[in-house]
Structure formats: structure tokens, C-alpha cells
Write a structure and sequence with these properties.
Layout: H1 3-18, H2 23-28, E1 36-37, E2 43-47, H3 52-57, H4 64-75, E3 84-87, H5 101-118, E4 122-126, H6 128-134, H7 140-143, E5 148-152, E6 155-162, H8 165-170, H9 172-191
Parallel strand pairs: 2-3, 2-4, 4-6
Antiparallel strand pairs: 1-3, 5-6
């Protein structure tokens, strides 16, 4: 593992704390949830915000949606330790509400720097909140599973928007769609 990337991510996390980003969220959260996984990963997953379990454990996607994400990673021949997982917003919104546009905007520069540090080949957004950063006019129901090239920092990156695992837990019809999209990810990546 490249320790220098993890050191940079740790420094970024400390900067978010020191700059008091989203003080209302910070004040009611247990801790900042910067991300988890391999900082040298070729794939970065981006969700929307930590939930209750994530806030307690300090890692993204460790609740029910995270368990489903783990199952899909395994089905696609990947492990959590091979990828990096983060969220747009780094503090849990109260009652697991959706993050507000202002909260997402406040964290955007930090998310972009996090992606720049990791320098992945592929960014996979999980749900519309993270997708909207990169594809502001897209509708997740129309573009899910379709790769598109975006510019992050000074380089081009492949983006694959997917439904959020939580949506598939609440909507059984989306479950198979998400699994199918997920299983195509390795093939999409190798074609690039």
C-alpha cells in the first residue's frame, strides 16, 4: 500500500475537521467518515452520506446497503480491500435525511481532492446524489450502468453511474437491475 496516499487522505480529513465544514452536521455526528479501502485503488465508489452505522464505525457502507454492496463486489470478482469507498458528504445527516445542496456543495472540493489523491481509473457513483456532481442533468433511471468519460482535475476518468444499494433494498425491482449493472463493471473497465 502506498502510505503517502493514505497520509494525504488523513490530512484531508483533518482539514475538513479544522475548517469546520458543515458545522451543523458536524455537531450532531459522532465522527467524520472520510472513506475506506485501498487508497491505490483503480475503482472509487461514491455514495451520498454516512448513515447511523457508518457514523458509529467511521466507515462508509457498513449497514444493510453496505452488506449488499459487499455481495455485489464479490459477485463481480472484487473485494472491498481492492476498491476505495467514500461519500459526497462526510458527516451523517440527522435521521438519515438526504444531504442538502449546500451540504453537498461544501464537501465537493474535498471529494474532488480525494479523487485526485487516489487517482482511480474508474469512478462509480452510487445513487443520484453522487451522480449529480458529475452528470448534473442526467436521470439515474436513464443512465444507470452506462459508462461516460468525465474530467476530474487534470485527467479524464471513466464514470459509471449505478443505483444506490439502499434503493435496491427498498425496491425489489431495482435489485436485479443493480446486480446486472454491477456484474458488467469488470467488462466495462477492461474494454476501456
Amino acid at each position: 500500500m502506498n502510505a503517502s496516499k493514505q497520509i494525504q487522505i488523513d490530512a484531508l480529513a483533518q482539514e475538513i475537521i479544522d475548517m469546520n465544514v458543515c458545522p451543523d452536521l458536524k455537531g450532531q455526528a459522532i465522527q467524520l467518515v472520510i472513506g475506506d479501502g485501498n487508497p491505490n485503488a483503480d475503482i472509487v465508489f461514491i455514495g451520498e452520506a454516512p448513515g447511523k452505522n457508518e457514523d458509529i464505525q467511521g466507515k462508509p457502507f457498513v449497514g444493510a446497503a453496505g452488506k449488499f454492496l459487499n455481495v455485489m463486489l464479490e459477485a463481480a470478482g472484487m473485494e472491498r480491500s481492492d476498491v476505495y469507498i467514500t461519500n459526497i458528504v462526510k458527516y451523517r445527516p440527522p435521521e438519515n435525511r438526504d444531504p442538502t445542496p449546500d451540504e453537498k456543495a461544501a464537501f465537493l472540493p474535498y471529494l474532488l481532492r480525494q479523487i485526485e489523491i487516489i487517482d482511480p481509473k474508474v469512478v462509480i457513483t452510487l445513487g443520484r446524489h453522487s451522480m449529480e456532481y458529475f452528470l448534473p442533468d442526467a436521470k439515474i433511471g436513464e443512465v444507470h450502468g452506462q459508462p461516460v468519460h468525465i474530467t476530474t482535475g487534470a485527467k479524464e476518468t471513466l464514470l459509471i453511474p449505478l443505483f444506490h444499494p439502499a434503493a435496491a433494498l427498498y425496491n425489489g425491482g431495482l435489485r436485479q437491475t443493480l446486480i446486472d449493472d454491477f456484474l458488467r463493471v469488470p467488462e466495462i473497465i477492461t474494454r476501456q
